[in-house]
Amino acid sequence: MDIYQIISISAYLMLMIGIGWYSYRKSTSNVDEFLLGGRKMGPAVTALSAGASDMSGWLLMGMPGAMFVSGLSASWIAIGLTTGAYLNYVLVAPKFRIYTEKAGNALTIPDYFENRFHDHRHLLRLISGLVILVFFTLYTSAGMVAGGKLFESAFNTDYSMGLWITSSVVILYTFMGGFLAVSLTDFVQGTIMMIAIIAVPVVVFLELGGVSATFDAIETINPGHLNMFHGTTWVGIISLLAWGLGYCGQPHILARFMAIDTVKQVRTAKKIGISWMIITVCGALSVGLVGIAYLEKTGQSIADPETIFIFFSSELFHPFIGGFLLSAILAAVMSTISSQLLVSSSSVTEDFYKSFFRREASGKELLLVSRLSVLLVAIVALALSLNPEDTILELVGHAWAGFGSAFGPVILFSLLWKGTTRNGAIAGMVLGGLVVLLWTYWEHPFSDMYSMIPGFALSSLAIFIVSKIDKRPSKAIEKEFEEVQQVYRDDY
Questions:
Q1: Which residues pair with 260 in a beta bridge?
Q2: Which parts of the chain span the membrane according to its record (predicted)?
Q3: Are 314 and 4 contacting, i.e. CB atoms less than 8 angstroms apart?
């Protein structure tokens, strides 16, 4: 590793730890602040935090790698995700911000489900808490794998060492500063990611003689790579677009909507968040595409397509700048890991420990449990990351589909249809999660279809059918629903 890269990476890591220490002193006096920042986040921090925690290492590694291998046909996933993120801001964010506060000031997704449906038996809390722990363990593991790959590919270090360095820093600042630390570091990380993802393709285009010359070279090398339909099927295209369905069920993104200061600020957050997303996604796709022409021109090759961004960082820039660009991957990885650790911690604390074991627990006790939960989930995810068998994109895809199918339909129905019942929500949540697991890990002739499609569809159908044949929700639940709709109309 070059000394300039060491300085650049070290400065970034120290900045993250510094933010963690600042947040520890500023906003962790009680469990509410540790888990949700006291609902005081501004629109810019909310938007970039949601984006950075969403994108993770697959933005700078998984997506460029897919583009490098498949060409423009891989861009369908970007279209699906951008559309899904926009609809999430429109359909979910404002009402969810209002409803989570109205429904007993819910601090977690399971907390919201229980309060929204007045589930006094705590079944919704238990089931949703288990879903979070299962799928977030997979998701967190994907981020740690990306960190290990970064150090292995960029610095020729042992994969395990990279895994430990990445995970240790994230655990430290999350453990210290909670939600404020995670949100502030996400804001910084999102900014770094955007700068890096613009800089790399621009420099490569200049090296290759411009956009037109680059595209001509790509078409010559791989005919069809600039055709969005080349090598695709309708099932494949729909599967990639279906990634967008997952947004309304991702706890680490929904938590940002819960924490924004006022519902009116959601509009500003939407503009910032979607603009950031379009820029970064287009940049990531461009990195993979220009890599084809550059490697052909220079006669070089890479063993793993998911390391094309790392290759460019070392190949085209001064080591100090290259270190900054590699920090962007660390930023992407860390932003997601920290968010997932915090949501998992909140679930362990609020949805299991407090609800089922220590209802009378003090604020200090719950704060301690929250911090210990960060360590517990991190240890399990680390164990799964030691010998990864799937690509980063595959690992993320499994977890994304799990949350999208188990939580997405329930969130939408709970916000948009007052006839949704508790039993309908339970049926949709259980069926959606099970379908994804079975579709992913059992062999069947329809494996080309992304598990999100059957999972989301069957979950929605189950919610509708069970709610229709179930008892009508109580007048108290319907009244609360109408009050939320009125606040939405008045304030948003």
A1: 41
A2: 6-24, 67-92, 123-142, 162-182, 194-215, 227-248, 274-295, 320-345, 366-386, 398-417, 424-442, 448-466
A3: no
